[in-house]
Structure formats: C-alpha cells, structure tokens
Specification:
With 450 residues, the protein is of the alpha/beta class. The protein folds into 2 domains: 225 residues, Spore Coat Polysaccharide Biosynthesis Protein SpsA, Chain A (Alpha-Beta Complex); 187 residues, Hexapeptide repeat proteins (UDP N-Acetylglucosamine Acyltransferase, domain 1, 3 Solenoid), CATH 2.160.10. Helices cover 20% and strands 29% of the residues. It has 9 helices and 41 strands. The strands form 8 sheets. A 9-stranded parallel β-sheet has the order 14-17-20-23-26-29-32-35-38, with no helix packed on it. The mean pLDDT is 95.
Length: 450
C-alpha cells in the first residue's frame, strides 16, 4: 500500500505540514496508516517531501507500539504532484503485483470501503480500479468522465474541465487499486500538465486504457469518504464528520449524548455504558470514562480516566485519574498528576495539581492543592493553600487520615500533618503537626478603641 503524503498544503496557510494537522485528536495521516495496517499488505510505503524529516519523525512516533507492518519512507525531492510521487516510488512498487494507492489527507476512508475496492479490483480483473463518490457539491475534485455505456474514460481535473465536465457529480476520491506493471509503464510517460505544471497520476489511467487495459470504478456508498483536506474549511468539515462517527459509536454502545451537535469526542475516547454526556462536553486524547457517569455541561477532559459512577460538571481536567464515585466541580481545575478517590469530592473553584486525594476526602471549594498527599476522610476548608514552591524547588505536603483543616489555612511545604489532627482556621502552618493535635498559628486578636 502506498500513501501519498508529500504535498506542501499551501492552501492550509500553515507552517505545519498538512498531513500533521489534527482530526479527532490525531494527525490526519494517522488514519491512513491505521487503515494500511488493518489491510495487512505486504508492505507500506509513505511518500514524504515537504518538511520530510518532521513528517517522518511524527509518523514513527504515532506508529510506535501498534503498527505491525514496516514502513518504507520514499522522499519526493520536488513537489511535482501525485504522478511525481509515484515515479519516486517505483523502486518500492516494483516489488509487488498489486498496489493500493491513497492520499494522506483522506482521514474519513474506512477499512470496509478500501477492502471492497480491493475485492472489486480482484474480481473484475482490471488494470486499475478507482474509488469514486457522488457529491452534491463536487467543487475542487477531479470529475470522472464515462462513456455512454458507463465505462470510465478519464478523470478531468477541475482546472481543466469544460462546463459540461464540471457539471459531473461523480468525483475521484484519490484512492486506487493498480496492477503495478501497467502503472509503472504508464508512470514513466507522465509529463507536467496544467497551470502548476504538475504530473497527474490520473493521466496514468488514460494511458493504461489507451494500451488496452481496463479501468473500472468502485463507488463508495458514503460520499464523505471521498472528502480530502486542502483548506481549514475542509478540515473543519472532516472534523465534524469524524466527530459524529465517534458519537454514533458511543451511543450505539449505550452512552447517552444529550446534544450531539454540541458534544465533541476524539477518536481514541472510550465511554462506558449508561454514562450521560451533557452539552458542551469535550473529551480529548486518550480519555476513558467509566459506566454510569455524568459529564458536563461545559466540561473539558483530556488524557484522563474516570472510574464508574463519577460526576464532573463545568470543569477542566487534564492528565488526571479519578476513581469510582468521585464528584468534581463545578468550576474545578484538575492538572496533571492528580489522583482522586474513590468517593472523593473536589468542588467549586478548587485547583488540584500532582496530588493524591484519598478515599472520601473533600476539597469542596476555593482551594489550591499542589504536590500533596491527602489520606482518607480528610476535610479541607475553604481557601486552603499548599505553598509548595519556594522559588527554586517544589515541596510536598502530607495530610494524615481523618484530619480536619479549617478555612483559609496555608501549608508551607515541606510539612506533615498527623492522623486526626485539627488545623485552626486562618493558620499558616510551617512545622509538622503530631497525630491528634490541634494546631493554631495566628496572632491573638486585639480590639482597640478608635
């Protein structure tokens, strides 16, 4: 299988290579690589050109640990179009009899469709089979020109189409099954065309046909799969389609999505049965939500895990682990390294960073807890702050089980609070507090007549 990913993507108006722009939380090229891996081809080739070193590095990183087929990287020295990419790939392609060729900017292609394309190519015994789709608005796509008998004659790029050809709604998806020998024979005769002087792979289809080869078409049942990405507008459209696919998958597995038009989940997100996603929920990265949870409204969770029967409302959670029957929010901020629960409570306007909140413990409101170990059944009063940073290093606060912390307390770390200790409201604690002790660290009140 050959994936073309060398284009500059100038219409994206970006310093980032087009194929590395995110769709569903992953670079769009990821979906082509995942598809290739699922098809189990004898080899996977990826043509890279624009910012080739960066693209190769990102591919190697995104494929680490799951790709079961080796990748051959092919460098396209000049941006000469899809036909030029195939010419650069001849040493790779000539090892095989049949090849699937697709584009790295087509993240909506599914395994079922490409598998059907391969089967159709094998059954019809042609030299080329192209994947087509009918679009209500075919602007920007090459049109498939057929004979009166329905035979595929050629593909006309939009910039070169006549008014009659431009009115055709059947378009080329950019995905093909080729017999390699006729493809390579035709590729060697390709020459630059059009205003950009590009070498079109589509011209190879005409050359194969002129030599007596058969060019067939396999129509996709889902027009969305033909959609490529050349602009930010198309990127947003593809994102919407993929998001709806992800939401449909969750709903079919028993998740309630109250308002799919205002709920956003990335491709790797997993959500358990009977969980409810309220409007404004954004689940990003490798997030997993357990069964029977309530998430939202207006909540963002990124690369985090929630156990069963949790609730998180109007909050932001990143790289945290929340255990069973824990509630978060509203207006909580959980930063990386946070572990809370089971049965913990993190409430209004509380920020937790790199801390462990134990079983049944509560940080109900208006607190900052950083680099802290809180054992079970601890109550943290409003306005409590762990002073964990001395300007050079971070230090730890440890609070023992069943401790009670009054409101407006400052813990100047490093400091350890014993089991069952009580901290008076308004105290600034700079020394360890023994088990069961009452600590009060504040000046005596004085009332003076004015």
């Amino acid at each position: 299988m050959l994936i073309l990913a060398a284009g500059e993507g100038t219409r994206m108006e970006s310093t980032l290579p087009k194929v590395l722009h995110l769709v569903g939380g992953r670079p769009m090229l990821f979906y082509g690589l995942r598809l290739a891996n699922a098809l189990k081809p004898a080899g996977i080739g990826v043509v890279i050109g624009h910012q080739a070193d960066l693209v190769q590095k990102e591919i190697e990183a995104m494929c680490k640990g799951w790709l079961t087929r080796p990748i051959t990287f092919i460098r396209q020295s000049k941006p000469t179009g899809s036909g030029g990419a195939v010419l650069e790939s001849i040493p790779f392609l000539k090892k095989f009899q049949t090849a699937i060729v697709t584009c790295g900017d087509s993240p909506l292609l599914t395994f079922e469709t490409v598998y059907a394309l391969a089967n159709s190519h094998r059954e019809q015994k042609g030299q080329v089979t192209l994947l087509t789709a009918r679009l209500a608005n075919p602007k920007g796509y090459g049109r498939v020109v057929r004979s009166p008998l329905g035979e595929v004659l050629k593909i006309v790029e939009e910039t070169e189409a006549s008014p009659k050809e431009a009115a055709i709604t059947e378009v080329n998806s950019g995905t093909y099954a080729f017999e390699v020998a006729p493809l390579l024979g035709a590729a060697k005769e390709l020459v630059p065309q059009g205003p950009k002087r590009e070498i079109y792979l589509t011209t190879a289809l005409e050359l194969v046909r002129q030599r007596g080869g058969r060019v067939n078409a396999c129509a996709s049942g889902n027009p969305d799969e033909a959609l490529g990405v050349n602009t930010r507008i198309q990127l947003a459209h593809v994102e919407r389609v993929l998001n709806r696919r992800c939401l449909d998958r969750l709903m079919l597995s028993g998740v309630t999505v109250v308002d799919p038009t205002h709920t956003y989940v990335d491709a790797d997100v997993e959500v358990g049965q009977d969980t409810i996603l309220l409007p404004g929920t954004i689940l990003k990265g490798k997030t997993s939500i357990g069964k029977g949870c309530v998430v939202g409204p207006f909540t963002t969770i990124e690369n985090s895990s929630f156990g069963n029967n949790c609730e998180v409302r109007c909050s932001f959670v990143k790289e945290a682990r929340i255990l069973e029957k824990t509630s978060v929010g509203p207006y909580s901020h959980l930063r990386p390294g946070t572990v809370a629960g089971p049965r913990a409570r993190i409430g209004n306007f509380s920020e937790i960073k790199n801390s462990r909140i134990g079983f049944g413990s509560k940080v109900p409101h208006l607190s900052y807890i950083g680099d802290c170990e809180i054992a079970e059944d601890v109550n943290i009063g409003a306005g409590t702050i762990t002073c964990n940073y001395d300007g050079v290093e971070k230090h730890k606060t440890i609070i023992g089980a069943k401790a009670f912390v009054g409101s407006n307390v400052n813990f100047v770390a490093p400091v350890k609070i014993g089991r069952g200790a009580k901290i008076g409201a308004g105290s600034t604690i700079t020394d360890d507090v023994p088990d069961g002790a009452l600590a009060i660290a504040r000046a005596r009140q004085e009332n003076k007549q004015r």
